[in-house]
């Protein structure tokens, strides 16, 4: 059975930290492939404060190009509406019955799993791969037993890069080069994304 990881997010913009997370999860959990799924409307960002989906999608495609273990997927963008994990999980299971799915999340998100929409149903279908930063305690230790068994922890290098920080740097007229893949940087430059007057 194929082992696939799904790394979702707003990707506004996708950056080196996202790619390091995908690679850490792939190696640490023995995945065949990692799919990058830009969210249409993330539940925690439903106020509309995000870059147009087409730009975010194009940047993800640029970031995934050239890596045989990475694939860009517009599944959640095509689904429309708020991107709830349970809806994505059920659709993936229906379309790819011969694949075992894992959802890759940051270690800081693990403690919040009990609050996720329909989490008990989600863990019936997938496992989670939690990215653990060096020097931090195991964030899954406080989870209920039913959830703790659904989380596999893998080490993740410490990277202090964020999409929020990149957007702010661009607004201030500062370069974000080398924090994003070069192709993504060129895309942002050509389309003048996150600049003060955009």
From TrEMBL:
It comes from the Bacteria. It holds the Pfam family CTP_transf_like. Pathway: Cofactor biosynthesis; NAD(+) biosynthesis; deamido-NAD(+) from nicotinate D-ribonucleotide: step 1/1. It catalyses: nicotinate beta-D-ribonucleotide + ATP + H(+) = deamido-NAD(+) + diphosphate. Its EC number is 2.7.7.18. One of its GO terms (molecular function) is nicotinate-nucleotide adenylyltransferase activity. Coiled coil: none annotated. InterPro entries: Cyt_trans-like, NadD/NMNAT, Rossmann-like_a/b/a_fold. The keyword Nucleotidyltransferase applies. SUPFAM superfamilies: Nucleotidylyl transferase. Residues 8-168 form the Cytidyltransferase-like domain. CDD domains: NMNAT. Keywords: ATP-binding, NAD, Nucleotide-binding, Nucleotidyltransferase, Pyridine nucleotide biosynthesis, Transferase. Catalyzes the reversible adenylation of nicotinate mononucleotide (NaMN) to nicotinic acid adenine dinucleotide (NaAD). Belongs to the NadD family. PANTHER family: NICOTINATE-NUCLEOTIDE ADENYLYLTRANSFERASE-RELATED, PHOSPHOPANTETHEINE ADENYLYLTRANSFERASE. This is Probable nicotinate-nucleotide adenylyltransferase. It comes from Gordoniibacillus kamchatkensis. The lineage of its organism: Bacteria, Bacillati, Bacillota, Bacilli, Bacillales.
């Amino acid at each position: 059975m194929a082992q696939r990881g799904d790394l979702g997010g707003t990707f506004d913009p996708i950056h080196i930290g996202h790619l390091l997370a995908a690679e850490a999860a792939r190696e640490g959990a023995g995945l065949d492939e990692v799919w990058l799924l830009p969210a249409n409307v993330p539940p925690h960002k439903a106020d509309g404060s995000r870059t147009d989906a087409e730009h975010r999608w194009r940047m993800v495609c640029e970031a995934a190009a050239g890596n045989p273990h990475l694939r860009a997927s517009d599944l959640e963008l095509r689904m429309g509406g708020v991107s709830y994990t349970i809806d994505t999980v059920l659709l993936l299971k229906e379309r790819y019955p011969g694949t075992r799915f894992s959802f890759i999340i940051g270690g800081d998100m693990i403690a919040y799993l009990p609050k996720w929409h329909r989490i008990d149903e989600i863990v019936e279908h997938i496992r989670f791969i939690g990215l653990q930063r060096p020097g931090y305690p195991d964030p899954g230790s406080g989870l209920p037993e039913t959830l703790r068994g659904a989380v596999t922890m893998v080490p993740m290098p410490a990277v202090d890069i964020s999409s929020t920080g990149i957007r702010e740097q661009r607004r201030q007229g500062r370069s974000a080069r080398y924090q994003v893949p070069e192709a993504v940087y060129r895309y942002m430059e050509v389309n003048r994304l996150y600049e003060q007057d955009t």
